[in-house]
Specification:
Blueprint: E1 2-5, H1 10-21, E2 27-30, H2 38-48, H3 50-53, H4 59-62, H5 66-71, H6 75-84, E3 93-96, E4 99-103, H7 107-114
Parallel strand pairs: 1-2
Antiparallel strand pairs: 1-3, 3-4
Protein name: ArsC family reductase
InterPro entries: Arsenate_reductase-like, Thioredoxin-like_sf, Tscrpt_reg_Spx/MgsR
Family: Belongs to the ArsC family.
């Protein structure tokens, strides 16, 4: 299992704390340090939709002007933006056996999916 995110994100911390508490082994992929590929983002968009993968609640998105935000209106543009600004990726994203299965953190969803 791989957890993708950035270590100082509170949602990522909650996810990792839950995994540790439930004794579930995982590998952490810090996309601030290791980056992320367009291929991986496309896979996640296929599972969750690009509108979900793009974090519109974070500071990175909110720093954009309304014009810049409205210009990111499709998956291709969203992926280009997320590659340049990895903080704009909703996190964490959890993969099991190479397949994205969870996005963000919800204790009930984690228990259902990984319990």
């Amino acid at each position: 299992m791989t957890v993708y995110g950035i270590p100082n994100c509170n949602t990522v911390k909650k996810s990792i704390d839950w995994l540790k508490a439930n004794q579930i082994d995982y590998e952490f992929h810090d996309f601030k340090k290791k980056g992320i590929t367009a291929q991986k983002l496309n896979e996640w968009c296929k599972v969750f939709g690009w509108e979900t993968v793009l974090n519109r609640k974070g500071l990175t998105w909110k720093k954009l002007s309304k014009e810049e935000q409205s210009a990111i209106d499709n998956q291709e543009k969203a992926i280009a933006y997320m590659i340049e600004n990895t903080s704009a990726i909703k996190r964490p994203i959890v993969e099991k056996n190479g397949q994205a299965i969870l996005i963000s953190f919800d204790e009930n969803r984690y228990a259902e999916t990984l319990g």
